Amino acid sequence: MRNRTFGRTGWSVSEIGYGMWGLAGWTGSDDAESIDSLRRAIELGCNFFDTAWGYGAGHSERILGRVVREHPERTLIAATKVPPKNFTWPSRRGFTLDDCFPPDHIREYAYKSLENLGLPAIDLLQFHVWEDAWAGDERWHRAVDDLKREGVVRAVGVSVNRWEPANVVETVRTGLIDAVQVIYNIFDQAPEDELFPLCRERNVAVIARVPFDEGTLTGTLTKETRWPEGDWRNTYFVPENLIASVDRAEALRPLVPEGMTLPELALRWILANPDVATVIPGMRKRAHVEANVAVSDGRPLDPALLQALRSHRWDRTPTSWSQ
Ligand SMILES: NC(=O)c1ccc[n+]([C@@H]2O[C@H](COP(=O)([O-])OP(=O)(O)OC[C@H]3O[C@@H](n4cnc5c(N)ncnc54)[C@H](OP(=O)(O)O)[C@@H]3O)[C@@H](O)[C@H]2O)c1
User: Fold this and answer.
1) Which of 16, 205, 249, 302 would bridge with 7, disulfide CB 3.0–4.6 Å?
2) pLDDT exceeding 70 applies to what percent of the chain?
3) What helix, strand, coil percent values describe the chain, rounded to 5?
4) C-beta 65 within 6 A of ligand 1
5) Tens digits of per-residue pLDDT, 192-224?
């Protein structure tokens, strides 16, 4: 596993990190399988883990804490997120800081996450929705500053709403955040326009999330795919989205080099960008961990292929189903 520097924190993080939403919140999760997969990832050099209080009201955090505590000899980075006070994902224009992150709520959930993790500190505390209109509001500045001074939190980040990569740029300019988590994959290339150059200039770490477009870029979805009742993907992959997504994934197939899989291509494309500190595929299965970690071998994609993938950019705007 190769490592990269996590912005101005100076942390050395594995370029393949671990997305932990699926562990609590997607149907088909099994704690024993998740724990086995996490242990395998650690064995293979993974040291960056992204969870949230919102992933099963602390369940995913508790699993992470347990596995991190089993490895006192390793430096493992635990990133989690404060849920918005109104528990509405994503935030919408017009939501106020009081609706989502009043200071007492930030503190309350930082301490809840700390307890769930059972670790001495939260390495990275992220806001789980964001509106750039809040950038200048000193109340969150003070809240995160206090948590840092108290040693509860080591670094602070924003997890940007889906398909709104620029809805954080003023916040990055405040100099108060250490990391930005954003959707970045073969389709969602828009963070390259404004966000990445700014993060590079300010030495703010970029966490690339949703590398497989929630499943499309694994190549396993069909136009008939449905999930068990209650799985959020039924409400995200509505026919309008599923059909277009499958068509776009199919259009990529001829570009996948011999001996490579589509998920491998998806990860290699992200890692080709040095602005990314770590990419966090969601993983529950050991086989997925092993396949994804194996991508971190430093082998670059052919420049002509990288160029060809540029034309698969898909700019989308938030809709009623996008979440
Ligand atoms: N608002 C936010 O802050 C926010 C929103 C979304 C996501 N995130 C973070 O980003 C992470 C990644 O996003 P995501 O999990 O939503 O979506 P994703 O990474 O795009 O896709 C995850 C899916 O890909 C499958 N998969 C993983 N590796 C595979 C492989 N090698 N071959 C085939 N399938 C593979 C997983 O299966 P298994 O699970 O069965 O292994 C899972 O179904 C999340 O886990 C979470 O940490 C944050």
Assistant:
1) 205
2) 100
3) 40, 15, 45
4) no
5) 999 999 999 999 999 999 999 999 999 999 999
Please give the distance, rounded to the nearest whole angstrom, from the Cα atom of residue 23 to the centre of ligand 1: 10
Q: Is the shortest distance between the CB of 17 and ligand 1 below 6 Å? A: no
Q: What is the mean pLDDT of residues 18-40?
A: 96
Question: Over the stretch 278-302, which tens digit does the pLDDT of each residue have?
Answer: 999 999 999 999 999 999 999 999 9
Determine the distance separating the centroid of ligand 1 and the alpha carbon of 298, expressed in angstroms: 22
19 lines ligand 1 (CB under 6 A): yes
Q: Which of 23, 210, 280, 286 to mutate to test ligand 1, by most ligand atoms within 8 A of the CB atom?
A: 210
In angstroms, the CA 118 to CA 108 distance is 15
Please tell me whether the overall predicted TM-score, pTM, comes out greater than 0.90 for this model.
yes
| 79 in contact with ligand 1, CB cutoff 6 A | no
CA of 34 to the centre of ligand 1 (A): 13
Mean pLDDT of 75-79: 98
> The tokens of 44 are what?
């293979």
Q: What is the mean pLDDT of residues 145-150?
A: 98
CA dihedral 52, 56, 60, 65 (to 10 degrees): 90
What distance in angstroms lies between residue 136's CA and the mean position of ligand 1's atoms? 32
Q: Quickly list H helices, 118-158.
A: 138-149
Helix 31-43 × helix 59-69 angle, to 10°:
40
Question: How does DSSP assign 13-78, residue by residue?
Answer: EESB-EE-STTTTSTT--HHHHHHHHHHHHHTT--EEE--TTTTTTHHHHHHHHHHHT-TTS--EE
